[in-house]
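Incident log, entry 3
Record: protein disulfide-isomerase (524 residues)
Problem: checksum mismatch between cached and fresh output.
Input:
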Amino acid sequence: LVWLLVLSLAWLGPALGDEDKEDELVEEEEKKKEDEVLSDEIKEEDNVLVLHEHNFARALSEHQLLLVEFYAPWCGHCQQLAPAFAQAATELRNESSPARLAKVDATAQTALATEFGITSYPTLKLFRDGNRTHPLAYTGRMDSQGIVRWMQRRAGPSATLLQDTDIATTFVNSQDLVVVGFFKDLRGEAAQAFFEVAAEMVDTTFGVAEAAELFQAYGLSADTVCLFKKFDERQTNFPVDPSRGLDTAELTRLLRIHSLQLVMEFTNETHLQIFGAKIPHHMLLFLNKSSSEQLSLRDGFRAAAGDFRGEVLFVVVDVTGHGADVLSFFGMTPADAPTLRLVKMENNRKYQMEQDDFSDSAIRTFIQAVLEGKVKPHLLSAEPPEDWDTRPVKVLVGKTFEQVAFDETKNVFVKFYAPWCPHCQAMAAAWEELAERYKDREDIVIAEMDSTANELENITIHGFPTLHYFPAGPGRKMVEFKSTRDVETFSKFLDNGGTLPVEPPVSEVREQPPCPGQSPAPAG
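Fresh output:
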């Protein structure tokens, strides 16, 4: 027994000692991590500074321009941005720019998130010269090139100083499109507003001039912003109003509009320009570019375009090229070309002539009639399936919607969906189960409508799925369902006459945000 006891101690002793050492190592590691968090040391990941509450002030003091991404580890948009953000950080560092990129896990660093009002992810803010109280919201594109250009504009002068006619001539001819601000005083308010616009429009090259010889050379006598192009008008002038000064928003709008060609062709390279100009209406000429006869229709189309610049953007869509992808949005096939459509961008309403007429006078007359509200929109509608009302979920289309949804004897609950929407797919089984539960109720109808193939005159669907309840009785009432999308919640809503007994807080309204409305260009 004594021997066994001695042998046991011999075996267990080192093991017990090892456990003590492991505990000490764990404690040391935890203390080390704690010290790292409390330290103001700044670590980097792929050239992106990793910031937290204790090193944020140091980062601001060490970097003149610091673009900080406030993110959440679980956020899909943040995960998508991460590679581009890292690439931009690397490019800026390689060119020895004073601009650096950083990131903050806003879910862990709640004090920083609160201080800077972070309510969504990712949120990007620019800190300049260590100023912590007035960061600038990022307004550029969410790709590496957009981030780099946006930061470069803020790291250096946003406009190149043109000192004489030779330099100005070379600058104006250097690219297809440049903007030059002519100001008598480069320190005045108008010039400063111009520099602000130049800093924001990072995809356009800006110059600035104050020399009298340059005013004379370009036929100017007062402060003016000039847009120089190698297409359409060679020089477009935007004089600065002496009493109102230079309005940055208005100048930006004008430059975006006039930077576009009078008639754009819809391509992979131009679609961002087309929608970025935010012109309220798009007039579309669908044609087959392989047909010389159809190509000739562009002449009349172009002749009408000048009268509506800024209000209507004229776009040519090749039905056999990049435009083939958008035909379904208009309920069209390549065989429908040539044809014309006008789209109101605010709500994607589409208008078409009773009979296509491609003359410039007919196009002008048609557009003017639409702008004056004299033409009804052309609404898409699929054909109703033969068994649309025999299944528990009734299948609605544009041409049958009114008679079903506004039946005064029925309470109708409609799901507006897109076939490609993952959120719609996820709730499909619940919607079927709900319909099965209420299939014997004469006063309740569970229905669905594919909103990518059907449109309604007075109801615009902005996201998928959208759920609307149309109660029985007189009047055209409609209630949007905004709660948890499951069978039990749907049932409570229906049994309570189209309301929920206790509404959840707004922040808990949906399990997931809806898919955005389908926006195939050129209808936005």
